[in-house]
Amino acid sequence: MRNDWSRPRAHGKVWFACPALEITVKLADFKVFTFDCYGTLIDWESGIGTALQPLLARVQGVSRDAALECFARHESAQQAETPRMLYTELLAVVHRRIAREWGVTVSEDEHRRFATSLPNWPAFPDSTAALQELKRRYLLVILSNVDRAGFAASNRRLNVVFDAVFTAEDIGSYKPDLGNFRYLLDRLAEQGLARDQILHTAQSLFHDHVPAKQIGLATAWIDRRGAARGSGATPAPAASARYDLRFESLAAMAHAVREELAGNRFTAG
């Protein structure tokens, strides 16, 4: 894999209460792009929103955005309470918690249907082409909060062969637990890959950027929600969140790599 290209600088960004900061990051410095999957590559907010519709139809005054934020709250709480629970099982518990909060009586079959909706969650339109382009230059690795079967189903939509896949099922905990990122670094170190050769790429500030920066990783924020209000299906981070690069889409990230190869300056974020 070539990594000796001469590329222009991209400037870092800050989020929330961080002081003004600029960090020089070159995409050429990395050999590995690690990815969160859901919210970054898979449009889980569309998938979750659709799967919650039967429940939403039975309550008054709950918007889609409010439903996603409710999901985020219960999902993160359940992941912290039961870190070894398989994600498919956890989704059923989350659905049960949401129904209880909304005062809706729901059958076990309905909980199971929500839990098994994950294979139907769509990929973002740009994910496959961007990943295939990036794969020509970088190792691509998944660090995901789902189980192996769930990711395998989603990867059939992405149609990309990743160089490694690490799930919550493999690790025994869910992001933002630092153990997930230590596991990632340990497994990549076994392949001779150092921390400074890795760029972690994700949408969720809460699940990914805060812990990744705590453990010393460079990060790229794929800001899928853009100007949308709130934080959607991911909790807002309690602490200030930093990242090194920001792109509005994965296609924009792949374009930045192309621009660097061509010797052109690009602005990330």
Describe, in plain words, how this protein is organized in 3D.
The chain is an alpha/beta fold and 269 residues long. The chain has 2 domains: 10-42 and 124-261, HAD superfamily/HAD-like (Rossmann fold); 44-120, DNA polymerase, domain 1 (Orthogonal Bundle), CATH 1.10.150.750. The protein has 11 helices and 10 strands. It has helices spanning 44-51, 53-56, 64-81, 87-102, 108-115, 127-135, 148-158, 168-171, 178-189, 205-214, 250-261, and strands at 10-11, 13-14, 24-25, 32-35, 139-144, 164-167, 198-202, 218-222, 242-243, 245-247. Strand 7, helix 10 and strand 8 (218-222) form a beta-alpha-beta unit. Helix 3 (64-81) packs across helix 4 (87-102). The chain is globular, with a radius of gyration of 19 Å. The two termini are 27 Å apart. Residues 1-23 have low confidence and may be disordered.
